[in-house]
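Form 7-S
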Amino acid sequence: MKKAVVSAVLALVLFSLMIGIRTESGSSGQLTYWTRFGELAATVGAVFVGSIIVETLKRWIGPVGSVELPATVRRTFSMLGRLLTPALLIFALLVPVIFYNQRYLLDLGILVLTYVMLGWGLNIVVGLAGLLDLGYVAFYAVGAYSYALLAQSGLPFPHFMETYPYVAIDFLQLGPWAFWVLLPVSGLLAAFWGVLLGFPVLRLRGDYLAIVTLAFGEIIRMVILNWQELTGGPNGISGIPRPSVFGIPLTPGEDGFAALIGVPFSPTHRLVFLFYLILALALLTNWVTIRLRRLPIGRAWEAMREDEIACRALGINITTTKLSAFAIGAMFGGFAGAFFATRQGFISPESFTFQESALVLAIVVLGGMGSQLGVALAAIAMIGGFELFRGLDQFRMLVFGGVMVLLMVWRPRGLVSHRAPTVFLQKRTEISSSLVKEGQG
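Output:
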């Protein structure tokens, strides 16, 4: 009861201004307010009752993580875990077929897969290499603006082209192939900026590294916002070319993809193509990450994450290890940014704020740092959760934040906290016993 009363008092103090009193500007500019003491009392009461339930469960079943599940239950969960990944992949492949006539769900699926790709890209830096990056949205923005500017060949910015005529490379001659040519270019440019970020932070760790990466993200955003001759400033860039099916445009004309395969044209065709395109890019990110983990560079990332001093003592080149992590993670962020630009057809600095970096980092942390499946599940839960609680209006962020707090209390290492090591000794017990018998142990 004592803990429940303390929790209720804290909830009263925290939520009194969030829920109990609401303010907004009136019609003539004055500040108006109204009270919601009933909702405040209900919230405090829920905290009080919830605290009693939690403490009671702790007394009955022990602290979190101290309960040993039966062997049959553990085997069942292990089998379900192995089946979950192929089930999610099959479902993702069938989403455009099942929800073909539901444009909202297709758009939501594209958004979820975009954040899955961003989460997997950031997972290389944070989850594998252990480098806390709060400015990952900068590489997302570099990829988006690189594709938008190169695809339009500077046509929306005549003043910039008069000042810098040597930049006038007419990528419009590529026609429908512009996206496929500029996609790797956007990724490489983002990787280049990732290397530039890596050099100043080679000797930084922990909070200091986070502050510098956060500043880097804000610098990129401010440059985009103020260099109006190049980026359009706050007005953004519009009319960004759409992707094509390997040179075949998704248009209603006779040269369009629908006419080529002999089906009636539908605007949904473009959504279906974008869905499969971002799914392919996300799976490519996942495949490359898994392959890299098994290579020496991936093992060096994991070793550096555990103990950087020990890595230096073992002769691992920390400089190349950190730069490779930043570059590869930034490259996948650039790919996602190029896709975002071609999907939206319009980009502006408002799409690349710190909140985006925080959201992607939350996906990585909640899913389990280093876990590919956990990041995918966290992206589905977080992006889908925003839509699920959209009807709650003012309480949506409060409910969502409460769920995140509870998840980190009960699963502090993320949704998927277990990650098998890339290298391990399978028969260490037998080897140790044999050495002892031979007098070598």
